[in-house]
Specification:
There is one protein chain. This protein is an alpha/beta fold. It is built from 2 helices and 7 strands.
C-alpha cells in the first residue's frame, strides 16, 4: 500500500501498485494472491523519472528533444523568465521547467573571527 501516487494528472490516495517484471502493471484494485507486499505507507510514488533534474542550455534542450525527451527539469536556477519564454515558443527544443533560485538549509558552522 502506498500513501499516494501521482499519475501525471491526479493524486491517488492509499492505493495498491502492482509491479510485474520490473514494470508497473496496474494501479488500484486488490493485491494479487501470492504477491510480495511491500508496505510503503507514508510514501509517495512518482513513476517515470529517468533523471530527477539536469543542468542544460539551449543546445542540450535541442538534443534532448531529438532523443524523445519532451520536458527537462532544470534545477540550477539561472534561467530568467524571459529566457524560459523564448524556450517555450520554440518547437525544436524540449520544454523547460526551472526551479529558479530555490532555497535549502545548510549546517550552521561556528567559526572564530579572531
Amino acid at each position: 500500500m502506498i500513501n499516494s501516487v501521482f499519475n501525471g494528472r491526479d493524486i491517488l490516495s492509499a492505493t495498491t501498485v502492482v509491479v510485474s517484471s520490473a514494470m508497473i502493471s496496474r494501479v488500484g484494485g486488490r493485491t494479487p494472491d501470492g504477491a510480495t507486499v511491500v508496505d510503503e505507507a507514508g510514501c509517495t510514488l512518482l513513476p517515470g523519472f529517468i533523471d530527477s533534474h539536469i543542468r542544460a542550455g539551449i543546445p542540450q534542450l535541442g538534443l534532448a528533444l531529438g532523443f524523445g525527451v519532451m520536458t527537462e527539469l532544470e534545477m540550477m536556477g539561472f534561467w530568467t523568465t524571459e529566457q524560459r519564454s523564448v524556450v517555450s515558443e520554440r518547437d525544436d527544443l524540449a520544454d523547460l521547467r526551472a526551479a529558479n533560485h530555490g532555497l535549502t538549509t545548510t549546517h550552521q558552522m561556528s567559526l572564530s573571527t579572531i
